[in-house]
């Protein structure tokens, strides 16, 4: 079994309900939910002319290898009605693999750790709550350290 940190976000509709429904769908698909962060409201990143986001993170235990976990996340997003219209645009649900044990993956479909993780306070803050001592496998810094750096 592997542990993975999944970032969860929503800025359309009942944001809290979408996030919690996504977590339940991950559980129903066989992921063991180990920890769920608090959810925080954040301003949009990238494309700023859209509603604020509700962001959080979940620590899961899974038998799925990284690419299969990605397929599951995309399936959950689709089942909740996510339609991809433009990069960083509004969405009812967004699920990202932020960390997967200490694994590094670089492929055309998937990059782990998430390539922008260390620059995004909205992703690091929930992670710092549930896995503060997890180490970014490329930067050799803890999530707590990375959050402090972007939060200064």
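-> sequence recovered:
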């Amino acid at each position: 079994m592997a542990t993975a940190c999944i970032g969860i976000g929503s800025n359309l509709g009942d944001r809290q309900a979408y996030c919690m429904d996504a977590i339940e769908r991950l559980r129903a698909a066989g992921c063991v939910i180990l920890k769920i962060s608090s959810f925080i409201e954040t301003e949009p990143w990238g494309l700023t002319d859209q509603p604020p986001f509700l962001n959080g993170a979940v620590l899961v235990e899974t038998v799925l290898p990284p690419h299969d976990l990605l397929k599951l996340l995309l399936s959950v997003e689709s089942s909740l009605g996510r339609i991809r219209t433009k990069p960083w645009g509004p969405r009812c649900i967004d699920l990202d693999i932020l960390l997967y044990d200490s694994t590094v993956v670089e492929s055309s479909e998937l990059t782990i750790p998430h390539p922008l993780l260390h620059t995004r306070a909205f992703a690091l803050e929930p992670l710092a709550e549930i896995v503060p001592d997890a180490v970014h496998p490329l930067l050799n810094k803890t999530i707590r350290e990375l959050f402090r750096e972007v939060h200064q």
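The first helix runs from residue 15 to 28.
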